[in-house]
Amino acid sequence: MVNYADTGFIVSLYLEELTSGRARAAMASLKEPLTLTPLLRLEMRNAFNLAVNRQRITAAQRNEHLAAVEADLAAGVLVEAVPSGGDLYREAVALSDRYTPTLATRSLDLLHVAAATLLGAKVFYSFDERQRKAAKGEGLKVRP
């Protein structure tokens, strides 16, 4: 089964956030890895760099978090996947027409839902309510 998590969920596994406990508990019950796309890599790295900028962590700690991500890839906790760029944007546009008028979803949220559906995900992990509603509307099981 393919599991997809948005950036907020994945970042909360590495940086201490209000949602970290819930994310770690959800991860403890996972039997399959989480998918890591290029978009997730970029957003995660940017979140770590923003944490450095905001003096929540040091540059050395950021590097430790990035190394932990690579270790999780090597261990099979995360698995890389790259959806087709053209398909990704076409799907996100369709999702925008379906969900943004009523849910006020953001473009990056739609890109995550589009990636999840294109990669054949069955479960979508997110703490973002609007994104969770769009994912659920696309037939994904939403957790935590």
Strand content: 5-15%
CATH class: Alpha Beta
Overall number of strands: 5
Q: What radius of gyration results from the CA coordinates?
A: 15 Å
Please give the count of helices: 7
Main β-sheet, spatial strand arrangement: 3-2-1-4-5
**CATH architecture term:** 3-Layer(aba) Sandwich
Could you state the order of secondary-structure elements as H and E? EHHEHHEHHEHE
Q: According to CATH, what is the topology?
A: Rossmann fold
Oligomer: single chain
Counting structural domains, the number is 1
Question: What this model shows, in words?
Answer:
The chain starts with a strand and ends with a strand. Strand 4, helix 7 and strand 5 form a beta-alpha-beta unit. It contains seven helices and five strands. 62% of the residues lie in helices and 12% in strands. The chain has a five-stranded parallel sheet. The chain has a single domain, classed as Rossmann fold (3-Layer(aba) Sandwich), CATH 3.40.50.1010.
What is the secondary structure topology, with strand pairs?
Layout: E1 2-5, H1 7-14, H2 20-28, E2 34-36, H3 38-53, H4 59-75, E3 78-80, H5 85-103, H6 107-118, E4 121-125, H7 129-137, E5 141-143
Parallel strand pairs: 1-2, 1-4, 2-3, 4-5
Kindly list the characteristics that best describe this protein.
144 residues, alpha/beta, Rossmann fold, 7 helices, 5 strands
Structure at a glance:
This protein has 144 residues and is an alpha/beta fold. The chain is built from seven helices and five strands.
